[in-house]
Fold this sequence. Notes:
This protein has one domain (2-123): Transferase(Phosphotransferase), domain 1 (Orthogonal Bundle). A hairpin with a 4-residue loop joins strand 8 (104-107) and strand 9. The mean pLDDT is 95. With 130 residues, the chain is an alpha+beta fold. It is built from two helices and ten strands. It has a five-stranded antiparallel beta sheet with strand order 1-2-3-5-4, with helices on one face. This is Serine/threonine protein phosphatase.
Amino acid sequence: MRNLKDGIRSLVKIDFYGNVHKYFRGTDKEERFTNEVRILKELEKRGCTNVPKFIEANEDELHLVTSNCGSPAPNLSKKKSDAIFAKLEKDFGVRHDDPEPRNITYDEKAGQFCIIDFELSTLLDEPSAE
Length: 130
């Protein structure tokens, strides 16, 4: 596997099939792991398509496997990223508690911007269909 990020709070690798492997570390790692798994599963249930898909998780190793959501989008403006995060909250009831452009990728296959890193997110009530 190839390393994508080796930081204080996580080690992120990509495997041969393109899946993303995230190993949680640092403070509150158990809570952050549990929260990200819960949020990703709920977003899938709520029909959100511009986030990683949950594949599997190993609670003993704090290891999460998700689908790949493309590459970083370094030229994305703060205004555009704010709009993407606002849509996530309004349409899917998830507040991303680190709403920065670094948590947005671009998936060329899907032709869309995607949101990543849900370990510090808040699950709100599911929006009602209007």
